[in-house]
Amino acid sequence: MTNDVLVRLARRCLESYEDLIDDWAEQVMAMEPYARGLVSREEVLEGARVGFELILRHLAEGRVPPELRPHSERLGERRAGQGVPLESLLAAARLDARALWLGLVRLAAPEDLPPLLEGAILVWEAVEQHNTGLMTGYQRAVLEMGRQREDERRTWFARLLDNDGRNPDVVRDAGRVLGFDVTASFVAVVASPAAGAALRVAASGMSGLGLRTHRHESPSGDMLVVQLPHRPPDPERLVLEALARVACGVSPRVAGLARVPHAVRLAAAAIRAGGAAPAGPMRLEDRWLEVFVAHSPELAAELAERVLGPLESIGAVERERLLETVRVHLAGNGSIADTAAALYCHRNTVQHRFARFRELTGRDVRVPGDAAVVALALRVRPASEGG
């Protein structure tokens, strides 16, 4: 629908809209963040000249000329790059409609006012088309800047890992890009390959608690580095609670960003020791024996065979009775009385079983060195027995 009065007034306004721009710019430059000089007055005026021409030619000609079509989106992109908040950009853009309307009204004769009022919706639509372009360009730029920041974070974290924290300059710059205090304490998390989505949710929850994190995607299992705050008293508990449903390995606390590559290796060792489908987070402190077994499965199998193999010479019932007694004792506090109580038998019975185990294997589980070797062998016994 064409409004002849609006078309005529828009054409007249095109010939002399500098006053409109000056009045509009005064109001915009009084707004934050323009008032702080984030964007110069000259640049604001230049953008307004093109924007007002775009809107007025839309009204006067019924279309936007091809050379002006990209302006709205490009202006939105530029303002995003300059750090202008979107609400401030849109607040300035909303002034366009007011300034244009006042300019059209000033040019209108009394008999023009009724048809001009009928065309108000056309003015609004032209301004909104400009504003939509601003938002589109702004949001696209924000997404692109976010991708660039994330690419930079990934690059510097990879450099930190590749350098193994040995170069202080790399550590410093990685800390700056990742937003970490290089002197703080950290824990590293390595998820199983299927737990990437769960780790993303956990990382988001930690960020909501105010913890600084960096998540790094990897085909072998996503990684998460968490900077531990000085408070609360047990920040590692917060991390473990957030990871409650994530199949992952968790490193011990390390001091300084330079130690994070080491922490990542420890977390990876913990997840490898967890078997095919761990149910939740596994702390390295709780998995030392499994880690050693997983680190050298061939040696672990050899150890199990040499330590426990002699038990194959006795019957299955006696063998399982001896192994159960040894397991209960190694899982306890080393007290013969407590082991007997847990097995509902006399302490002399326990002593006799230990003596029989030593007779067959040459290992006395009451001796710390032998106990450590037997405990390690028992971690691989199911795999080494073959059934």
Q: Which runs of at least 5 residues are low in confidence (pLDDT < 50)?
A: 383-387
Helix and strand sequence? HHHHHHHHEHEEHEEHEHHHHHH
User: What integer is the average pLDDT?
Assistant: 89
Shape: rod-shaped
CATH architecture of the largest domain: Orthogonal Bundle
Provide a count of the helices.
Answer: 17
Percent range of helical residues: 55-70%
Provide a short characterization of the protein structure.
The protein is of the alpha+beta class. The protein has 17 helices and 6 strands. The relative contact order is 0.07.
Can you describe this structure?
- The protein folds into three domains: 4-144, Globin-like, CATH 1.10.490; 173-294, Alpha-Beta Plaits (2-Layer Sandwich), CATH 3.30.70.2730; 296-385, PucR C-terminal helix-turn-helix domain (Arc Repressor Mutant, subunit A).
- The protein has 17 helices and six strands.
- Strand 2 (212-216) and strand 3 form a beta hairpin.
- The chain has helices spanning 4-15, 18-29, 41-61, 71-81, 86-107, 113-118, 120-163, 168-178, 196-208, 235-242, 260-272, 288-295, 297-308, 316-331, 336-343, 347-361, 368-385, and strands spanning 185-191, 212-216, 223-228, 248-250, 254-255, 281-283.
- The longest helix has 44 residues, at 120-163.
- The protein is an alpha+beta fold and 387 residues long.
- The N and C termini lie far apart (84 Å).
Keywords:
single chain, 387 residues, Alpha-Beta Plaits, Arc Repressor Mutant, subunit A, rod-shaped, disordered C terminus
Q: How do the strands and helices of this protein lay out in sequence?
A:
Layout: H1 4-15, H2 18-29, H3 41-61, H4 71-81, H5 86-107, H6 113-118, H7 120-163, H8 168-178, E1 185-191, H9 196-208, E2 212-216, E3 223-228, H10 235-242, E4 248-250, E5 254-255, H11 260-272, E6 281-283, H12 288-295, H13 297-308, H14 316-331, H15 336-343, H16 347-361, H17 368-385
Parallel strand pairs: 4-6
Antiparallel strand pairs: 1-3, 1-4, 1-5, 2-3
